[in-house]
Design goal:
CATH architecture of the largest domain: Alpha-Beta Complex
Distance between the termini: 31 Å
Largest sheet: 6 strands, mixed
Strand content: 15-25%
Number of domains: 2
Structural class: alpha/beta
Bound molecules: acetoacetyl-coenzyme A
CATH topology of the largest domain: 2-enoyl-CoA Hydratase, Chain A, domain 1
Strand order of the largest sheet: 1-2-3-5-7-10
Number of helices: 11
Order of helices and strands: EEHEEHHEEHEEHHEHEHHHH
Length: 259
Amino acid sequence: MTHILLEKKGQIAIAAINRPKALNALNSEVLEDLNTLIDTVEADPEIRALILTGSGEKAFVAGADIGEMSTLTKAEGEAFGKKGNDVFRRLETMPIPVIAAVNGYALGGGCELSMACDIRICSDSAVFGQPETGLGITPGFGGTQRLARLVGPGMAKQMIFSARNIKADEALRVGLVNAVYPAEELMPAAEKLAETIAKNAPIAVRACKRAINEGLELSMDEAIVLEEKLFGGCFESEDQKEGMCAFLEKRKHEPYQNR
Ligand code: CAA
């Protein structure tokens, strides 16, 4: 991977988009690297959570690469949108939880990348926005869909139609992020959250991710059936047996083994 730095810390992977001179803008190469990142993380059964952040102090990701997009034809524009959407959808449906640690500008494709993650936390210097209409385009990597689902259609329309950026405190207020930290505390907080998740039974955590993501696309009746199936599936796992035995025997459970 040319533009992504990957570090493994125990059961956690930390990936940083690394094009700081272009504020980590997403060109085709970065999108390909994101695919490689997902392949690499999925191939490692030890990894139980992924943290995604940006290199440098200024940006998470300042958007899709405007230089690369500037000369696209209609067909090429559609293909570029599909390339981003395909990899963001892969990220969103990865079995393990993905945390976006947003350390600065998260604009356009950067805001969209954060929204394809399961959980967003940010530094107090973070700035979110969908500036595309100011550039003569729509959001192209899922922004119209995920922003409306996360903050509601009214706020999403206001942000997208006006192309106005919002700061960390407003992102927290509208529910785009779960928490805001001083810059130096962001990565420790992300790692602590990832470690907390990694200590829980991985099969159950993955089942919860599926239940929430897939359930939101279904009617309540269908979603409840999905939850029942995923709940039932946990009873085939050794982690369920250990977790419940430990509770009944009033002892701490053994580290979960992903079985
Ligand atoms: N694409 C390509 N290059 C970018 C970029 C982007 N999205 N964002 C920043 N850069 C580059 C700049 O061109 C500049 O490069 P040079 O030094 O070679 O000139 C470098 O990063 C530093 O940027 P600035 O000098 O502009 O830094 P700043 O601190 O003055 O401003 C900023 C920071 C407000 C984020 C500003 O860079 C900016 O507005 N960037 C564009 C943000 C944007 O419009 N993003 C949406 C893109 S469209 C999209 O993402 C579509 C989609 O949904 C798929």
